[in-house]
UniProtKB/TrEMBL annotation:
<feature type="domain" description="ABC transporter">
    <location>
        <begin position="22"/>
        <end position="243"/>
    </location>
</feature>
<feature type="compositionally biased region" description="Basic and acidic residues">
    <location>
        <begin position="251"/>
        <end position="268"/>
    </location>
</feature>
<protein>
    <submittedName>
        <fullName>Teichoic acids export ABC transporter ATP-binding subunit TagH</fullName>
    </submittedName>
</protein>
<feature type="region of interest" description="Disordered">
    <location>
        <begin position="248"/>
        <end position="268"/>
    </location>
</feature>
<dbReference type="InterPro" id="IPR015860">
    <property type="entry name" value="ABC_transpr_TagH-like"/>
</dbReference>
<dbReference type="GO" id="GO:0005524">
    <property type="term" value="F:ATP binding"/>
</dbReference>
<dbReference type="InterPro" id="IPR050683">
    <property type="entry name" value="Bact_Polysacc_Export_ATP-bd"/>
</dbReference>
<dbReference type="InterPro" id="IPR027417">
    <property type="entry name" value="P-loop_NTPase"/>
</dbReference>
<dbReference type="InterPro" id="IPR017871">
    <property type="entry name" value="ABC_transporter-like_CS"/>
</dbReference>
<keyword id="KW-0067">ATP-binding</keyword>
<keyword id="KW-0813">Transport</keyword>
<keyword id="KW-1278">Translocase</keyword>
<keyword id="KW-0547">Nucleotide-binding</keyword>
<comment type="similarity">
    <text>Belongs to the ABC transporter superfamily.</text>
</comment>
<dbReference type="Pfam" id="PF00005">
    <property type="entry name" value="ABC_tran"/>
</dbReference>
<dbReference type="InterPro" id="IPR003593">
    <property type="entry name" value="AAA+_ATPase"/>
</dbReference>
<dbReference type="InterPro" id="IPR003439">
    <property type="entry name" value="ABC_transporter-like_ATP-bd"/>
</dbReference>
Length: 268
């Protein structure tokens, strides 16, 4: 089987600052200010061409961080990512420039991906039609609702036809009809044998759509396998997690982060 994505020992370290003065001082005197926080700890995972992989995990597990690293939007601190082909990410906040119109955003994103002006002009009507934005396409994106932004991001990403499509919570906003249309489009991608990563809190969408599931727990891979193997365990965990009090959830997070940190220190 041909590998499509290889994520090797990837960690992501963020600096957490108590205030903006610390952030500025850290630029002048690096390492002296702020506290290190690992959003990902030594993550390993591989996907084969044609795999549809779901990323699951409670809030703050690192799903978006990992998606952004795979898409090349955020750099990893340690480790490596190998991609076989071009990746495109659709997210609710999909890197659209607020001051520019929808049409200008289409052009900008496509230019950045290496398309010629002629190619962009040819793709533009399909993107506009799929996004269902009507006259809003010539309005600045700052006037769009989150559903409209997501529709535009989705339309651009599916029309440019990438080898690897990453969809981060993009179907959680907007209307049901658009979500259905998008799922249909994603099925077309699946049939073409493209690789997809799908980030969602919807268990139903995960089961309906993905073959494999990567379960992240506060920056660490808790499990990776087929939907049939991983989802029952994740759903069982969610039942317990949802019953926890705020304090218990906090404790659960602290314990997970502490053990991940210890493991990371051991391996360094
Ligand atoms: N730019 C940043 N600076 C500091 N910390 C960050 C930054 N981006 C993300 N984080 C932290 O990294 C952790 C992982 O965040 P991430 O958004 O990847 O999780 P997630 O699983 O996608 O969460 P959700 O389901 O809520 O979208 C969180 O604790 C978050 O606060």
């Amino acid at each position: 089987m041909e590998k499509s994505i290889i994520v090797k020992n990837v960690s992501k370290k963020y600096k957490l600052y108590n205030n903006s003065r610390e952030r500025i001082f850290d630029l002048i005197l690096p390492k002296n200010y702020g506290e290190d926080f690992y959003a990902l700890h030594d993550v390993n995972f591989e996907a084969e061409k044609g795999d549809v992989v779901g990323f699951v995990g409670v809030n703050g597990s690192g799903k978006s961080t990992l998606s952004n690293i795979i898409a090349g939007i955020v750099p990893e601190t340690y480790g490596e990512v190998y991609l076989n082909g071009q990746a495109s990410l659709i997210a609710v906040s999909s890197g659209l420039k607020k001051e520019l119109t929808g049409r200008d955003n289409i052009e900008l994103k496509c230019l950045m991906l290496g398309f010629s002006k002629k190619e962009i002009k040819a793709m533009e009507p399909d993107i506009i039609e799929f996004a269902e934005l009507g006259k809003f396409i010539d309005q600045p994106v700052k006037s769009y609702s989150s559903g409209m932004k997501s529709r535009l991001g989705f339309a651009i990403s599916v029309t440019i036809d990438p080898d690897i499509l990453i969809i981060d919570e993009a179907l959680s906003v907007g209307d049901k009809a658009f979500a259905e249309k998008s799922l249909e489009k994603m099925n077309e991608f699946k049939e073409k044998g493209k690789t997809m990563i799908f980030v969602s809190h919807s268990i139903g969408q995960m089961k309906r759509f993905c073959q494999k599931v990567l379960w992240l727990e506060y920056g660490r891979v808790k499990d990776y396998g087929t939907v049939e193997e991983v989802m029952p365990k994740y759903e069982e965990f969610l039942k317990t997690f949802k019953k926890m009090s705020k304090k218990e959830k906090q404790k659960h997070r602290e314990n997970a982060l502490e053990s991940a940190h210890k493991q990371l220190m051991k391996s360094e």
